[in-house]
Amino acid sequence: MSTALQSAYSRLIDRYSYPYQETILQFPAQDVPPRELIIEIGFGMGDATYKTALENPEKDYIGIEVYKPGIGKLLDHIDREGIENLKVIEHDAVEVLGQMIQNYSVNGFHIFFPDPWPKKKHHKRRIIQDEFVSLLIDKLVPGGYIYAVTDWEDYAEQMLQVFGNQKLLLSEYENYAEPQKWRPFTKFERKGKEKSHSIFELLYKKR
Predict the structure, then answer these.
(1) What's the predicted TM-score (pTM) here?
(2) Catalytic annotation, pick one of 47, 92, 115, 154
């Protein structure tokens, strides 16, 4: 972690984050109807995260991550850009969703280029598994979406199977989705393309 990122993390974490807690997160009183809530799981260095929040000020965003350099970088972006609709939670995503996020409260989940754990013996560590996706569905409002992107073909095939197993999820695409124009280009996507990897996008909505 560079000195600059360490400084950003130390100065800004309390200002732009929700500390992990074992009770449901209570948001400030909002206008009616309530603002949409979008959660990004594993935001890496946060490039797509802050750009999406900046371009959609009418929505609220939460980024969940445990990688401190990435958290420091995103906090710096939030502070420099004056972003008021984005907060960070530094903790394991499964515990955050299980303890802090109310059921039927999330309008969308973003999971962009999650760790592919490429070795077959490590596939069980991949975050897109049946139990985890069931948890996401519990948190989504009807019509809410899960948008996942990877550059690993075998992981994409696993995602198709996992999402396809869920009766409450529906995709308007036969298999992979078309790239959504609003999704910012990320460094992970650039690295994947440099390796001649294809980009696989999956977009499912809760019935």
Answers:
(1) 0.94
(2) 115
